[in-house]
TrEMBL record:
InterPro entries: Glycosyl_Trfase_fam3_N_dom_sf, Nuc_phospho_transferase. This is Glycosyl transferase family 3 domain-containing protein. It comes from Oryza brachyantha. GO terms for molecular function: glycosyltransferase activity; GMP synthase activity. PANTHER family: ANTHRANILATE PHOSPHORIBOSYLTRANSFERASE, GMP SYNTHASE-RELATED.
Length: 581
């Protein structure tokens, strides 16, 4: 089976093969045509600063178009089989969301798996991770899902036809996942009860999987032990993996299908807190940790990078974290935008601490590769799983740098049921304030667009909930327990904003930068309004000093942009990331 592992990326400043490359024309990064002289000024300044810093930036244009988010998918990472992925999208989801396969589709996917296992699909094999996810979904549905989302008659007929042939070509770990207790496949399911794994790490994983595949749950310590045993995924040698990708993908998607408990989510969230040693502590009065969905935006303007530059102007330091590219959406991320502008996006937490403390920047971005290598190691497996695992929730509530002063967390969400778990994880982090936002695309960006009477069911966009420590209470005395909660739907029109359509970017990193830099350059319009709204509302809802009155908070954000300070901080950041030690 084809591995979806990647070897570690080269260090910052080196080409993909580890050799220095010549500088590329930075003006292309922010040279957005003829709409504004401000942009051309930014381009010249960025180019000058990077030349001064002696930066060697990758020449991207030869092999890909860095203006589009899809191009940031890591090179050399095998793509999943499309037929298998389509089936996984239907069967590897929740008890109510699962859509059983019809007989024709079940026949097609099982035939594809058979031919792949027999070595007939050299160009697009079904990976081990896909096999683990697909059969985990089928097993959990058979064991614990309600009748409506258990196997359809078509799936039963297809499996009865193909399983006697699959049993002869599938690896033992996949046969275990498909029938762990020998109760699903009848006489052809005898491998599962006897299977124990091939290493110490796999033995613990197999034991946990038996509970997960039966629809059960694990304790906090069990989840942490499994994750620490199996991550980071590494190659023991060229032909042998230390842990089966099929087992790991079955574990990850199985936990999500079973609707992970608070204890399980805490296990995912806190498992690698000590991975790099003691957490650096920044000497700042206030620090906000931003938890954007790591898989980015595919349709609408993503504002958080620009909001961070604005809030830094008045002492609200901001720590962003994420990856360049993440499935399933593979959309625009802060890492892509910063890299496209020429910043060093591979900083250590200690270097991020320095940037947070720097009075000319006041914000920082951390790539998961440097901040938490174990979690970064399974990006490829996550693409082959198709659906989001529990890590998609817990990774938004990380604390890679601490602060001597006040700490807050902000995270975006979309699906019903994850609002309270996110707040629970934030409370577990013992921060002073926490905020979850249902922004556009499930990200953090609140909109100024008036809600339509035909809006979809569920929580509306701009729904916010959270907690904060009352100003009258000393946090150290309260020991992180005395907090006041709130829920609010932000109505931008009540705050004086005109209702406008959200600017579309449609996976264009260049377009997102064009919009954001123009707004920071003072160009009024929908993008400008969204940056102001999101900066001020976060200040206000988190209870930040000077933002008790929302109109004052809005004016403060506008002043940070109109004075040019926010744009200056963003440009300073690009320069200083290459000098910080």
């Amino acid at each position: 089976m084809e591995s979806v592992l990647l070897r570690p990326l080269p260090s910052a400043g080196l080409g993909r093969r580890g050799s220095p490359r010549g500088p590329r024309r930075v003006g292309a990064v922010v040279g957005f045509g003829e709409r504004s002289r401000c942009w051309r000024g930014v381009a010249v300044a960025a180019a000058s600063w990077m030349e001064e810093a002696g930066v060697a930036v990758l020449e991207e244009g030869v092999r890909r178009n860095p203006a589009v988010s899809d191009s940031y998918r890591p090179q050399g990472m095998p793509r999943p089989n499309a037929t298998g992925l389509e089936a996984q999208a239907r069967v590897c989801t929740g008890p109510e969301q699962t859509r059983p396969l019809g007989e024709e589709q079940a026949m097609r996917v099982l035939d594809t798996i058979l031919r792949s296992a027999m070595g007939e699909l050299k160009d697009e094999p079904v990976s081990s991770a896909q096999l683990g996810a697909f059969f985990a979904g089928m097993t959990i549905r058979a064991n614990s899902f309600p009748e409506a989302t258990q196997w359809s008659e078509g799936e039963r007929r297809a499996m009865s036809l193909f399983w006697p042939r699959l049993i002869n070509v599938l690896p033992p770990e996949v046969k275990f996942i498909a029938d762990p207790e020998g109760t699903i496949m009848g006489a052809n399911g005898l491998t599962g009860p006897r299977y124990v794994g091939q290493s110490t790490a796999e033995m613990r994983l197999v034991g946990a999987l038996r509970e997960v595949l039966a629809g059960g749950h694990l304790g906090y310590e069990e989840v942490q032990c499994v994750l620490k045993d199996v991550l980071p995924i590494e190659l023991a040698n060229e032909n042998s993996k230390m842990v089966s990708e099929a087992l790991l993908s079955a574990f990850l998607i199985g936990q999500r299908m079973n609707r992970e408990t608070d204890r399980e989510l805490k296990g995912y969230c806190l498992a690698f807190d000590d991975e790099l040693g003691p957490t650096p502590v920044a000497d700042v009065k206030s620090l906000t940790h931003y938890g954007e969905p790591y898989d980015g935006n595919t349709r609408f303007f993503r504002s958080t990078l620009f909001v961070a530059a604005v809030r830094a102007c008045y002492g609200e330091a901001c720590l962003l974290h994420g990856v360049e590219w993440m499935p399933p959406k593979g959309g625009i991320t802060e890492g892509q935008m910063l890299k496209f502008m020429g910043a060093n996006t591979h900083l250590s937490p200690l270097q991020a601490k320095t940037l947070l403390e720097d009075e000319s920047t006041g914000f920082a971005y951390l790539n998961l590769q440097e901040a938490c290598p174990p979690l970064s190691s399974i990006i490829g497996i996550r693409e082959h799983i198709k659906k989001r695992p529990p890590l998609a929730t817990s990774e938004k509530v990380q604390q890679f740098v601490r602060a001597r002063g006040r700490e807050s967390m902000v995270a975006g969400f979309y699906h019903v049921g994850y609002e309270d778990p996110l707040l629970m994880l934030m409370r577990r982090r013992t921060v002073h304030a926490g905020l979850v936002v249902k922004g556009e695309e499930g990200a953090l960006s609140m909109t100024t667009k008036e809600r339509s009477v035909h809006a979809s069911k569920g929580l509306p966009v701009n729904h916010c909930s959270g907690f904060r420590t009352p100003n009258s209470i000393n946090f150290s005395e309260a020991d992180g327990i005395s907090r006041e909660g709130f829920k609010v739907i932000v109505n931008a029109q009540e705050l004086g904003f005109e209702s406008t359509e959200t600017p579309r970017t449609d996976r264009s990193v260049l377009k997102n930068l064009e919009l954001g830099l123009a707004a920071l350059g003072g160009e009024k319009g929908p993008t400008y309004d969204r940056i102001v709204l999101n900066a001020a509302m976060v200040d206000h809802l988190l209870g930040c000093t000077g933002a008790e009155d929302i109109q004052s908070a809005l004016e403060r954000a506008r002043e940070a942009i109109d004075s040019g300070k926010a744009l200056s901080r963003l440009m300073n950041y690009i320069k200083i990331t290459h000098k910080v030690s």
